[in-house]
Design brief:
The complex is a heterodimer of chains A (about 210) and B (about 280). In chain A, about 45% of the residues lie in helices and about 5% in strands. Chain A has seven helices and four strands. Chain A is globular, with a radius of gyration of 17 Å. Chain A starts with a strand and ends in a 25-residue tail after the last helix. The mean pLDDT of chain A is about 95. Chain B is α+β, with helices and mostly antiparallel strands. Chain B has five helices and 17 strands. The longest helix of chain B is centred in the C-terminal third of the chain and has 20 residues. Chain B is globular, with a radius of gyration of 18 Å. Classes of the chains: A alpha+beta (about 210), B alpha+beta (about 280).
Chain lengths: ~210, ~280
């Protein structure tokens, strides 16, 4: 499986993270999204006419939507990652794409100088974070750590990156304790990998041994 | 703004990224940049032409009267090096804090974990720092650090040797052990464009001996490293870099930073700096 990847992309990270959590090897092909706009190059447009990243190629299958890639990575052996309630999972996958349009765009604006109506996208992002906070708080009252139940699903992986990177786009996560606990739960999952701006949980590692 | 600040050279764009004229900011002032054929130009808000130099992949200008040429990096001109434009990353921090972070080694194991450093190898051994009066630059030499993956071209951990050079108030050059060519230095620079005192565009640029890594991977590696720093830079307090001792307690590992701040104070460079009255 080949993932056409950009190291700073939240959507590419969803796929890298999902593959790491499922322990599925993928080959990463770096695309010079910034500053070269290589995702709009003729070679990349042949793979994905929409000119977006990520692109996942698995034999004859070419996927260009990150939600499809997450579904594709889940095998019958790991079917729990699809969740017990498909409608709930779909709802949060849809929510993830709205986070990408709000917080994701605010981040591209603030970090890579993309054109955006920054006040609008931040405002949308805050409204969505409040919604997410409320839901995760309700879930915790019911003894559930994740979006659709006690165990993580592709919906959590889809929503996590843009929420966790909100501060890159100038949106604070300070007011959302339930979101922060949820992010901590995701960062504690076996096989978790980081991306720039999302750090691993150093404090959960064993205390470092003294050097020889 | 004092002459001491306006008279320096600043990066304002990547040369390959300039096609049609566009506006940007420098030291809080609007400027316009553009090109005619191979010639680049920069104008201030009144339409006055500012000096322009295209060098090291970037366009440089000065709103004042620079009394010397833009610094040179002779090693970067050597044949066989790959010159890598990395593009800008915008950071809500003092331009001086961006440079200072670039000069710091102690954060590697904690911010660039398993790449530029790893626990338990956190010790920064003694190194040498000088303010070189003859060139008016800050240099740190004999810096050594254990790194799990020092560069895109490194396979496995190595003890990397570094030299740091502050060549202008907002531009620093790093000379670093070159994994495929022992005896040569890889060159990684941090060119910082001060938009305001608390906002900057950071233009990393590299001149490397690496014939095998795809360009996109070299750029990704550098952007990954810099983005790991960004959230730290944006949360540093005070927002401006304190030039006077007292606000922070430096340790042995901070010698370069101490020299950088001392040098900024000596040359009167206070843009993005916090100057506490004695």
């Amino acid at each position: 499986m080949i993932l056409y990847d950009y190291v700073l992309s939240a959507s590419c990270y969803k796929v890298r993270l999902m593959a790491a959590l499922l322990d599925i090897p993928i080959t990463l092909k770096a695309v010079n999204f910034h500053p070269e706009k290589q995702h709009k190059s003729p070679e990349m447009l042949r793979l994905n006419a929409a000119g977006t990243l990520p692109v996942l190629v698995d034999g004859d299958v070419i996927l260009v939507q990150s939600a499809d890639m997450l579904r594709h990575l889940v095998t019958p052996k790991n079917a729990g990652w699809l969740g017990d309630n498909p409608a709930q999972t779909e709802k949060w996958l849809d929510f993830a794409s709205r986070l990408n349009a709000s917080l994701g765009m605010a981040r591209l604006h603030d970090v890579l100088m993309f054109d955006a109506d920054i006040d609008q996208v931040r405002c949308d992002g805050v409204a969505q974070l409040r919604q997410l906070e409320e839901w995760l708080t309700e879930q915790r009252f019911d003894g559930m750590t994740f979006l659709t139940g006690a165990a993580p699903t592709i919906a959590d992986i889809a929503c996590f990156p843009n929420a966790a990177l909100a501060e890159d786009g100038g949106v604070s996560l300070d007011p959302y304790p339930s979101i922060r606990l949820w992010m901590r739960a995701i960062r504690s999952l076996p096989g978790f990998i980081e991306m720039p701006g999302i750090h691993r949980l150093h404090e959960l590692s064993p205390a470092p041994a003294r050097p020889e | 703004m004092t002459a001491g600040i306006a008279d320096h050279w600043y990066p304002v764009a990547m040369c390959s990224g300039i096609s049609s004229p566009r506006d940007t900011r420098l030291l809080g002032q609007e400027i316009t940049i553009g090109r005619e054929g191979e010639q680049f130009w920069v104008r201030d808000v009144h339409g006055k032409t500012l000096p322009a130099i295209a060098r090291y992949g970037h366009l440089w200008t000065s709103p004042g009267q620079p009394n010397r040429d833009l610094f040179s990096i002779p090693e970067a001109e050597a044949p066989g090096r790959r010159l890598v434009d990395c593009g800008a990353v915008r950071v809500k921090c003092s331009p001086l804090r961006a440079v200072e972070n670039f000069l710091d080694i102690a954060h590697f194991p904690f911010v660039h974990t398993d790449i530029l450093g790893a626990e338990p190898y956190t010790e920064v051994s003694r190194y040498e720092v000088q303010i070189r009066e003859e060139v008016d630059e800050v240099w740190a030499t004999k810096v050594k650090f254990f790194q799990p993956q020092a560069a895109r071209s490194a396979a496995g951990g190595i003890t990397t040797e570094y030299m740091y050079r502050v060549a202008a108030p907002t531009s620093a050059v790093l000379y670093k052990t070159c994994p495929p060519r022992p005896g040569e230095w890889d060159i990684i620079t941090l060119f910082v464009q001060p938009l305001t005192e608390e906002l900057c565009d950071v233009w990393p640029w590299m001149a490397l001996y690496d014939d095998t890594s795809p360009l996109a991977e070299l750029v990704s590696f550098q952007q990954m490293i810099f983005m790991q720093d960004r959230s730290i830079l944006e949360s540093q307090i005070p927002r401006k870099l304190p030039l006077d001792p007292g606000m922070e307690a430096p340790t042995q590992a901070d010698l370069t930073s101490v020299a950088y701040r001392r040098w900024l104070k000596r040359i009167g460079f206070t843009y993005g700096a916090q100057v506490v009255a004695a």
